[in-house]
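Dear colleague,

As promised, here are the two records you asked about, laid out in our usual form so they can be pasted straight into your sheet.

NAME FIELD: protein one
SEQUENCE, THEN STRUCTURE:
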Amino acid sequence: MFELIFCSLVTILPDYLYRRYVQGKRIGREITLYSVWFELRYGIVTCAMLTVSVITMVFYYHPTATGAVSVYRTVPILPDRPGRVAEIYIDLGLESQVKAGEPIFRLDSSQQQAEVEIASKQVGEIEADLALAQAELRVAQGQVDQATAALTQASEELATRQELMARNANVVSQRDIERLENTVSSRQGGLAAAIANREMVETKISVALPARLESATARLKEAEVALTKTTVHAGVDGTITQFNLRVGDIVNPVLRPAGLLIPADTAHARIAAGFGQIEAKVIKVGMVAEIACAAVPFTVIPMVVTEVQASIGAGQVSASDRVQDVSQLARPASITALLEPLYPGGLDEVPPGSQCIANAYTSNHERLATDPSLSTGQYVFLHVVDTVGVVHAAILRLQVLLFPIRTLVLSGH
């Protein structure tokens, strides 16, 4: 409508003024309902061609997306293992605000507490074994000292008898010498056994028991971690919604999540808009855009395009047990672009998930100011492209004004 009115002002109106004031033809006499086409044929044809051209230019260079949504991220609230709910720490309302690290609910932890107690007792037993091994080491050292003393005594006695025998063979018999030699050999074996026993106790203290203690300590930590995981905490600041758990319910991380957590940093962050595939060469990062959301009537929010998805979702193919039919993939799809507020706090009043209408505007201002190679035709054309964006902006504002009437009055309420 705006395009038709604008084009008629520069085509049909001049044609009519020429007919009226130059040729003297008047409406109702020379220009009637039956002769208007013949009299104003040049203006009407030119108006139709110009209107189509302007509409095409407006909707191509300044695209619109009716499928724009205030997107937000959700985090499912799941425990690491299935279990029965024993305690709930948050308010059982429609939504609950939580901070990072706050507990949400706790599963029955009787088994985990028993495992922690068993692991703690095992650590205590090994520590007691270490204390006992220290006493065994002192006993083994005493046995070594005793065997050393006995060997020294037997060796000295053997040396004395051998010296006496060397001086006078009749004083000491050969039988006594052999008996003492056997005694020394026996005492040497006893000393070696005592030393081996001491080394075994030292190995037990320095290697075996510390390894068992480390293993028991690791099992204790594992049991404590399992006990800690029975309490589910919030990972980030946000809002918990759809939380329908009650004490006694069974929670399964595969079949039944406890609820959803909406992180606070993504609730009012961006708008995802789907533009037509024909706009693939027009939608660019940095384009200025505007949105109008149903949840915030009579408001136009300035935005900027921050990301444009390079691929189109309709063509994705994943491995499956069926042969892909290309006709099923050739359905219409859109180019996804992410819009963020041009000014801080622009989306604070827009609830997450709101449906919106988005307009993106092509701007050639920088190119017109910095590119000296533009011809006169290109310079004028780019100016016209930037100018007709006002038409699309006016259309958006008209839609914003008429939306409450169309929704509340004309929709059958």
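NAME FIELD: protein two
SEQUENCE, THEN STRUCTURE:
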Amino acid sequence: MLKLFKATGPSGMVHMSTWIKGEDLDIFATAYLAGMKEQPDNTRENHFAALNTLRIACKLYDIYQFDFRMSYGIGVDRALLRRINEAFNYKKKDLQKVLERKKTGADLFDIATQLNALPPAETSTIKNRKIALRRYLNWLLDHGDRVLRNYHVSPEETAKRKQLRANVEEVVVVARQASFKLRSKLNPYDLLLLEDFMESYDFRDVWKEEVTGLRNKVMFDLQFYGTLRTGEVLLLKHNDTKPGRRDYPNEIRIEDRRNDPEETRIRRPAAKTGAGVVTVPEPTFKLIEEWKDAFLDIEDDALELGLHHRMEHNFMFVNTSRRMKKYYGRPLTISGYNFAFKSLCEAAGIKGRLGPHALRHLCAMRYVRRRKQQGNSNDIIIRDMCQFFRWSRTSDMPKLYSAHENHASLYEAMEQD
């Protein structure tokens, strides 16, 4: 008898009847999708489509109880993972046609031949669905690990589950953008425009709302003068700043707060290299103190607007637009940060595509030029950059920066790499 379950699909509540006949009963996928009800529609749609594709791939290769085996057992071997990963390169409707042919008696060899003859799906479709596949597989493994902690699991099976997780990371690979697209963002002329603008602009001339301009000025100065990454700026809290005394400089503490109980952003910022401490120049630190004073006014405004519950967190940078009351007082998102940086670039006359990380890039270039003018050798500069910019000692980034004293030569080296 057909049982019907409901899960959150791309357009609300969707009957998943095709997954739940007999052995296809899929409580795992139902629970996973139901937990995504707060995600944007396009994200839920990608995950829903990915799980449908996974279901077809399992039927194509006669993989039974896949979700249960991944969650509580030792999963499937690398060969089967590769076949599943390969199936995600094609359109779902084409995979469904191959599955129909299989039902007429086609063997496994014929299936592989038929898949190779299919036209590939769009690159963006492949990327989004493989991202969703990886997240689902890791969710199955995490879910199983939490349950298995309550049981005795042999060392052999524990080792196999660790290997299974490694196989997922190695086999289900999400293709990155072509390198020339990434490098095009590092146009040397645009970087020179941005560097000159950062040293001279008045934030009141860029943003109409003064409190918004002050916030953006502080955030971007922290990257341009203080080496912070975008995620590190967004994760700062008010108690992370420490004023300097005597011979001690002003300091800012960096923390990775992706699992912070106060974190409510769907796309969570991250501190790439974990916890650490950075120093910032006195003018930047004074701007931070000025922003803290302005933040008190934001709290008063939120109380006046009946939005004081939005301020029940300690994150330093928040949405400041009173025109968008839905978001007022909430921690600033990555998209909000990028939007503010886009306004900065437009004011600087930059027509190319630059991301906020360009500010940290400029900070590194300026650091190298200053240290070379002081007569420091490359070895010393590389050693100090690892500490100042919080790179690992094995990172190639300090060597790349120290070998080039201007944007043009660094850009040329990246093009030849």
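A couple of things worth noting about protein two: The longest helix spans residues 123-148. The longest strand covers residues 6-9.

Best,
R.
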